[in-house]
Design goal:
Elements: H1 2-21, H2 25-39, H3 42-48, H4 55-66, H5 72-83, H6 90-105, E1 107-114, H7 120-134, E2 137-144, E3 152-156, E4 159-162, H8 165-177
Parallel strand pairs: 1-2
Antiparallel strand pairs: 1-3, 3-4
Helix pairs in contact: 1-2, 1-6, 2-6, 4-5
């Protein structure tokens, strides 16, 4: 996975830089998400892996599928990726672009998995606390996992906060056994 990220990073940075200069972060976010979704289709993967096709042929076939959703700079970006045999990196490029966009906008996507659904008051309180901790605007996405005994797991970027009963019991057992 690190290799894909390393290969995709320059393309994501270039797309981000262009989108920022054009004041079109939202448009490019949508464009890359669409292209990434198309690239993950089984038939498109077969197309991208076909060694008999040239970069131009891959680009033309790829663009014939999603050209309605792409503007001219987006089409040029797809052609560049095809020429460099990097179309398969589109999902990673899109994810890295979203990270750069979140940093620029000072936002953070946070996933909360809890034993019970969060009330609106709990969600607002958690959003405020996380916004203060990370010094960013937090967009909270919550889900329920009834297999948790209680508490919640919070994932914010690379940070994971395990506040579940199971997690606390594991820490207690580790402390006792040490």
């Amino acid at each position: 996975m690190a290799e894909l990220s390393t290969l995709a990073r320059p393309y994501a940075k270039a797309a981000f830089s262009y989108a920022q200069q054009a004041s079109d972060l939202g448009g490019w976010s949508s464009l890359l998400a669409t292209a990434a979704a198309v690239s993950q289709s089984e038939k498109v993967r077969e197309l991208l892996d076909n060694p008999q096709l040239t970069g131009d042929q891959r680009a033309d076939k790829f663009l014939s599928i999603c050209s309605d959703d792409l503007d001219e700079p987006g089409k040029n970006f797809i052609r560049l990726l095809a020429e460099n045999h990097r179309l398969q990196l589109l999902p990673e490029i899109s994810a890295l672009f979203e990270e750069l966009k979140a940093q620029a906008e000072a936002t953070l996507e946070v996933e909360v998995v809890s034993a019970r659904s969060l009330s609106d008051a709990q969600a607002q309180k958690l959003t405020r606390a996380l916004s203060a901790k990370f010094e960013r605007e937090v967009h909270l996405h919550s889900s329920v996992d009834e297999s948790l005994l209680g508490g919640a797991i919070v994932r914010a970027g690379d940070t994971v906060i395990d506040g579940t009963v199971r997690g606390r019991l594991a820490k207690l057992a580790e402390a006792i056994n040490s």
